[in-house]
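Support request, please re-run this one:
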Amino acid sequence: MKKAAFGGALLAISLLGCGSESAPSAPTPPPTPSATAAPPTPSAEAVPSIPPAPSDEICAEVIVVQWQGAAGATEAITRTQAEARVRAEELLASIESGARDFATVAREDSDARSSGARGGLLGTYAREDWPPQHEAIRDRAFALQIDQLSEVTEAPYGWVVIHRCPAEFRYTRHILVRFAGARNAGPEITRSHDEAQALASQIRTRLVAPGADFLAIAREVSEDTSRERGGDMGWLGRGRLSAAYEQAAFTMDVGAISEPVETEFGFHLIQRVQ
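Re-run finished. Output below.
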């Protein structure tokens, strides 16, 4: 990997946010046609067009080495600031020499717990939607070329090495079935974990039946705020979704519909569009 000198700031993972919303009310029945009026001709609802994948977003990964008293450091961190820098330089050298890869170092040695578990992955963002809490690193990350490393740089939370990774995207739709206690589940959600899983399996049977309309079924039964869009999640890059959702989305074939995928929000039925 190539190397460039830039400052750093705290990196973490942004996960899929599923809002809580009650089920839609029953639609108002259409007026009864007059005896002389010709019956309406049924027509399928137009499928939304798929825009091109983003071209202005980058993927960023990070390794963080903290010192005692650094922002966010736990009590387990006892090294001094100088010792932390030496350690960060050692980790960078091991990557540059080819002895270890970035993802392995991040998982085994980064003090950024959420991103470290995902090989250092921060996420994939455009400048205008970069997470505000990571604004300090935004311009530095965008200045890197793909597969380029920064030098060890100081931030309030530790010494940081940034890697700009290739951006990858998937276009998906999903249906969410919540269970009591799931993240963002409102008090109206009373079904158990097992009941939610069983219901998701029943919905999948409908989705894979001949002639099934994913958009229509999503509008009918999904318990996510994307319901009104037929479950449309649009283009999202790595690091923007819950890990299990992302794993499914990035391994499915185009057009496939997943088995129920559990995240902290409930059970998802995912359709890969592109």
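The domain at 2-13+55-165 is CATH 3.10.50.40 (Chitinase A; domain 3). The first helix runs from residue 81 to 96.
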